């Protein structure tokens, strides 16, 4: 069945509009009418988390030396803006390296990112400070 559907529907790894204008993904998944299940959303997110962690391992290999909560903060930020975007916070990263947790939280708060996502920044800055 899978082979037949791939032959008929195609396999597209990025969203596209089908012949009647429905947002579609994969092998004919109609996102407008069917969407995805919670399990599928979690599966996709777990893959994204693994990708973010690999990106962080390459870009900031020392991030694994942080405690678990601070790793979560860094990973959450990288999930939102990418590891490259996170590198646009040099004062924040310098504070992390010297284990200046209040300084790192202050750098988080003093950013465009904080004005764009204030609730998220507040939660993560508190986690950074409290560890």
What does this structure look like?
- The chain is mainly alpha-helical and 131 residues long.
- It folds into two domains: 35 residues, no CATH class; 93 residues, Lysozyme (Orthogonal Bundle), CATH 1.10.530.
- The protein is built from seven helices and three strands.
- A three-stranded antiparallel sheet has the order 1-2-3, with no helix packed on it.
- α2 packs across α3, α4 packs antiparallel against α5 and α5 runs antiparallel to α7.
- The longest helix has 22 residues.
- It is elongated, with a radius of gyration of 19 Å.
- The protein starts with a helix and ends with a helix.
- The model has no long low-confidence stretch (mean pLDDT 96).
Which features would summarize this protein structure in a list?
131 residues; mainly alpha; Lysozyme; 2 domains; 3-stranded antiparallel β-sheet; 64% helix; elongated
Task: Give a short overview.
The chain is mainly alpha-helical. The protein has seven helices and three strands; from the N terminus they run αβββαααααα.
């Amino acid at each position: 069945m899978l082979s037949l559907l791939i032959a008929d529907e195609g396999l597209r790894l990025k969203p596209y509009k089908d012949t009647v204008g429905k947002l579609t993904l994969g092998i004919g998944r109609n996102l407008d009418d069917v969407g995805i299940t919670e399990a599928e959303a979690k599966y996709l997110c777990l893959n994204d988390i693994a990708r973010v962690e690999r990106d962080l391992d390459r870009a900031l290999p020392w991030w694994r030396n942080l405690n678990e909560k601070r790793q979560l903060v860094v990973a959450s930020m990288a999930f939102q803006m990418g590891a490259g975007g996170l590198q646009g916070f040099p004062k924040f990263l310098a504070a992390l390296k010297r284990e200046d947790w209040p300084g790192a939280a202050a750098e988080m708060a003093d950013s465009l990112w904080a004005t764009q996502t204030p609730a998220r920044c507040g939660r993560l800055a508190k986690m950074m400070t409290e560890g």
